[in-house]
Amino acid sequence: MSIESLRDRLPDYAKDIRLNLGTLAAEPSLSVQQRASVFVAAALASRNAEVTAAITAEFAPVLSAEALGATRAGAAVMAMNNVYYRFTHTVGGDYATMPARLRMNAMAKPGMERADFELLSLAVSAVNGCAMCMESHEKAVRHAGLTQEQVQAAVRIAAVVHAVAAVLDGEAAVAGLELSAAA
Predict the structure, then answer these.
(1) What is the dihedral of CA 115, 120, 124, 129, to 10 degrees?
(2) Which residues are catalytic?
(3) Pick the CATH number of 3-182 from 1.20.1290.10, 3.40.50.620, 1.10.150.20, 1.20.140.10
């Protein structure tokens, strides 16, 4: 399974997604590690097994074992943080000042360059829709010297990976309905 196999699975109505996926797989504004870790983290955040398998097969080989572990840890901790901080940001009140009391050791010692970890955290936060986390991680990557173009590229990757997962999930649902109707 690969990016090419994902592109081949996308129906004609998702031609734009197919083209964007191919273009972003070679996004020049990001380093190899940044591009690969953002793709893998966004795939994990997409919660689609086929997308995760194909993207991991494509990009994991270019990451060191430590960087791949950091990417997975980042996606995992952001899945938790995005829910918690989206809640505190949306509801407001005293929740925002209360200690989270959630373990987040992966963020303290990520196992890869801090800026790259923050960039993949930003991408996962974009997929999960946590405004507070997006603002925090965007500020961190910009402070680390990444450009607006690099930030935009990471979020574009996250958006396209999420769209691939949504299209494939939708196609699977339709196929399931058609099988049920035929039975």
Answers:
(1) 40
(2) 130, 133
(3) 1.20.1290.10
